[in-house]
């Protein structure tokens, strides 16, 4: 990995064959890039508007597009950048896109990376960082086109992260229960708060079952509209209703021989529960518009974050259906009760997203580890996953810092961004008055800005945070 200090020297001596297309409506920016980029890349073209973007791509066949996030002075939401990113990816999926954004649009740029952008560059940019990012994007494009490149890469049924087993008493009990029940065909109900990993546990059950070689079909039962409930689950025949132009195989048939995972089963309306119960009892489905019964052989796993026994008492969930799906009950505890899993999961997510987003991060700073352990994680593993993904995207260097995480700290452990709990200039848990994290953070930034006369590079270095993070903080506090 090249450092920002020596990368442009290397790139100048090894001029890339890449074709770069810059799309930016700022004349001054285009002029600056017209002077800079041709020294490092074989061909550089400029567009002042995205209106002719797709036709230019067709003619030029660029390797990398450097795409501004905003093009109209009256609109500064970044949505145009996301729109044209989607257009590029649909029109030419092998082209890498680097987003060009002001500091106020960093969150949109992060969203853009989730939608397929290679990376983003913040204005005003660092020449070394810009050249390095465009070069790495070109290398990624070469890797992509050097292999067979499918038009899409859908996640197939049954593909899910492998279960991480902690050592807490609750997780140890669940693991022992699962080892006994997984090899059977018993119906299993998994309950727990949102984000606790119910879908991952369901996948683990399927992986350990005798049906592992057969499909696992996952259905968000609560997201199916009432009008399409029977069609989606049981299928339909051609002409069964308007727009039924062909036969449709439902989820039960798709899972035949394997496992059917019905997530959010507690959200199924009462009157539709009877239809589901009938199929589970008869082990056969009838497609909408047909009269022929089709036998089905499935292993059923259900999940919900709702209190089904209470719903039974309230009359909103059928008692007979509850017993049908609840041969075995597994209750996943929230992440706050699984402290031993937080750091291993964070490291797993860090490795995954470092590879996905081409980052070099491979370690968690001590203060970052402390913050992760101190956080309550009301969103559980899903929140932790999102936190680490965002931190990896915004990171600079090989270590995730406290500032990268952007986590609020509990009031009894305040410490500065980039600092440590022992920093004596900040209040401690023994202080009579404990400042909020925001107050501590704002004061630290203002002090650093004053100390370094507003030099953002020096301020970011003093606070041990990245420039994009500093930009976001400046906007947040109106500095």
Task: Name the beta content range.
Answer: 5-15%
Mean pLDDT across the residues is 82
Count, helices: 20
Question: Biggest sheet: strands side by side, in what order?
Answer: 2-1-3-4-5
Give the biggest sheet. Answer: 5 strands, parallel
Coarse shape: globular
Write down the oligomeric state: single chain
Quick one: how many beta strands? 14
The portion of residues assigned to helices is 40-55%
Low-confidence stretches are: 1-13, 147-159, 411-435
Secondary-structure-based class equals alpha/beta
How would you describe this structure to a colleague?
This protein is an alpha/beta fold. Helix content is 44%, strand content 14%. The protein has 20 helices and 14 strands. The protein has a 5-stranded parallel sheet with strand order 2-1-3-4-5, with helices on both faces. The protein has a 5-stranded parallel sheet with strand order 7-8-11-6-12. Helix 5 links the parallel strand 4 and strand 5. Helix 1 packs across helix 6, helix 14 packs across helix 16 and helix 18 crosses helix 19. It is globular and about 75 Å long.
Primary descriptors:
five-stranded parallel sheet, 14 strands, globular, 20 helices, alpha/beta, disordered N terminus
What's the arrangement of secondary structure elements?
Blueprint: H1 4-13, E1 16-23, H2 27-36, E2 41-47, H3 53-60, E3 64-68, H4 79-91, E4 96-102, H5 106-114, E5 119-123, H6 127-145, H7 169-181, E6 188-191, H8 198-208, E7 216-220, H9 229-234, H10 251-254, E8 259-263, H11 270-282, E9 284-286, E10 293-295, E11 299-304, H12 308-314, H13 319-325, E12 328-331, H14 339-356, E13 363-364, H15 366-374, H16 380-394, E14 399-400, H17 402-405, H18 437-451, H19 456-463, H20 467-477
Parallel strand pairs: 1-2, 1-3, 3-4, 4-5, 6-11, 6-12, 7-8, 8-11, 13-14
Antiparallel strand pairs: 9-10
Helix pairs in contact: 1-6, 4-5, 14-16, 18-19
